[in-house]
Structures are given as structure tokens and as C-alpha cells.
Design a protein that fits this description.
174 residues, mainly alpha, Serine Threonine Protein Phosphatase 5, Tetratricopeptide repeat, 10 helices, TPR-like_helical_dom_sf, DnaJ subfamily C member 7, TPR repeat, TPR_rpt
């Protein structure tokens, strides 16, 4: 009951967009009852709102380890993977959601987003080999719309900007 009370307090802070306080209460809920998938799922959502995708990924993964049928846990894990630039792992998570709930429109959309990122990665790879750095920058900009926390995409973009002689932009991205 105490853990549930902490979760409800966390939900109240989350609703007010006070993600730091929500995080604290979800952590208290987890400390009190460490085997509840939804507590990890809620903390993952909070960490995502704080832009802390690596930590959120660990919580989302823990939530689905505890309950493999936890749809929101799989969705959050996929969104974290995608934000970090791992579109292949994200796709697997979204496909798992669709196995559990074939009509889940969020998973369907996120699966499209993941395949879009994979497509931009492929195009960028080919264009980098062709030394078409402008096109690579374009592709990385598009990919970063879905994967804002991907260091690999940012580094590739910065490298291409430098190769184009756009040093201040390259430095800013790096």
C-alpha cells in the first residue's frame, strides 16, 4: 500500500510536469516494492521527459523483464532505443507491442518512424562513400528528428559539416 501511495504521488507530480519530484516518488515506490513493472515503467516515462534516455531505457527494460506483457514498457523501451539511434532494437520492441496488441496505433506509427531512421542511415552511408556530405547532413538532420539523443548521428553530421568547410556549425553540433 505504501508503494502504491508513492506511485500516486509520483503520478500527481508527473501530471503537473514536475518530473524531478515524480522521479523521486517513483523511486520510493520501486525501493518499497522492487518487483512492480508499472513503477519502473512510470519512472522510465519520467526519465524520458527529462531527456535521460539511457537511464529510461534501463527502467523500461526492467519493466518488461518483470512483465513481458507490459505493453507500455515495450513502447517506452522502443522509444528510448529510437531516441538513442538504435532503430533496429526499437523495431523489435514495437513489433513485440503489435504481437501483444495488433491494433496499437502508437506502435504502428513508431515502427514506421524506426524504419524511416534506418532508411536515412542507409542513404547517409552510401552518400558518405560518394563524398556527398550535404546529403549526409540532410539525412542526419532527418534522423535526429526521431533520434535526438543519438551521439553517432550528431558526430557524423559534425564530421560532414567540417568536410564541407562549415566549421562553426560543425563545432556547434560536436
Amino acid at each position: 500500500r505504501e508503494a502504491e501511495s508513492f506511485k500516486e504521488q509520483g503520478n500527481a507530480y508527473y501530471a503537473k510536469k514536475d518530473y524531478n519530484e515524480a522521479y523521486n516518488y517513483y523511486t520510493k515506490a520501486i525501493d518499497t516494492c522492487p518487483n512492480n513493472a508499472s513503477y519502473y515503467g512510470n519512472r522510465a516515462a519520467t526519465l524520458m521527459m527529462l531527456g535521460r534516455f539511457r537511464e529510461a531505457l534501463a527502467d523500461a527494460q526492467q519493466s518488461v523483464r518483470l512483465d513481458d506483457t507490459f505493453v507500455r514498457g515495450h513502447l517506452r523501451e522502443g522509444k528510448c532505443h529510437l531516441s538513442l539511434g538504435n532503430a533496429m532494437a526499437a523495431s523489435r520492441c514495437f513489433q513485440r507491442v503489435l504481437e501483444l496488441d495488433h491494433k496499437n496505433t502508437q506502435a504502428q506509427q513508431e515502427l514506421k518512424n524506426a524504419s524511416t531512421v534506418l532508411e536515412y542511415e542507409k542513404i547517409a552511408e552510401v552518400d558518405f562513400e560518394k563524398r556527398d556530405f550535404r546529403k549526409v547532413v540532410f539525412c542526419m538532420d532527418r534522423a535526429l528528428e526521431f533520434a535526438p539523443a543519438c551521439h553517432r548521428f550528431k558526430i557524423l553530421k559534425a564530421e560532414c559539416l567540417a568536410l564541407l568547410g562549415r566549421y562553426p556549425e560543425a563545432q556547434s553540433v560536436a
